[in-house]
């Protein structure tokens, strides 16, 4: 599965992509490829959920039409890293104790015995390739598995934050300004999903 990652990342969103492919031609004949995409801080203001919503997301809608769309799927914790940790480990925060963006070490340490989603795929005959803010801690680990790349990935491209200034975001000062910033980020994420779908179709592996 081929993909490219943009070198600029919108401040409110981080697109991350994980591809899992069967490790050998014989296995590939029986198992599908898996492409996992996650976007930070997404709410239901988009036309993906309601055509009358103000923020248009044609590419997300295009992707939804290709499969099953769940209109009532909720994160287990309203915070970035705990949500990612739950999805990647299969452990709810009530089990893992990860409720904050600094709490993932409770799960991702070599003594916990936790198995990540890409690690599980690799343990079952797949190659796993990823990029971006998958595990969430982009500052310390570039979004990679904090335990080490080799546990979860055959190849991983770390999150690129060289163009982001690390300081407290300014107060948007108005709801209108906040919505404007959100719309810009949503537009960007939607456009990247569109580019990804185009490349997937061009690869000839969209149905594999």
How would you describe this protein?
This protein is an alpha+beta fold and 208 residues long. It has one domain. A four-stranded mixed β-sheet has the order 2-1-3-4, with helices on both faces. Helix 2 crosses helix 8. It is globular and about 45 Å long. The N terminus is likely disordered.
Beta-strand residue fraction: 5-15%
General shape: globular
* Strand order, largest beta sheet: 2-1-3-4
**Oligomeric state:** single chain
Number of helices: 8
Q: What is the first-to-last residue Cα distance? A: 10 Å
Structural class category: alpha+beta
Mean pLDDT: 80
Give the C-alpha Rg.
18 Å
Strands, total number? 4
Number of domains: 1
The helix/strand order is EHEHHHHEHHEH
Query: Which regions have little confidence, pLDDT < 50, spanning 5+ residues?
Result: 1-15
Helical coverage, percent range: 25-40%
Largest sheet: 4 strands, mixed
Outline of the structure:
33% of the residues lie in helices and 12% in strands.
Tags for this entry?
alpha+beta, 12% strand, four-stranded mixed sheet, globular, disordered N terminus, 4 strands
Topology, pairings included?
Elements: E1 15-22, H1 25-28, E2 34-39, H2 58-64, H3 80-89, H4 93-96, H5 117-123, E3 126-132, H6 138-141, H7 149-152, E4 155-158, H8 175-203
Parallel strand pairs: 3-4
Antiparallel strand pairs: 1-2, 1-3
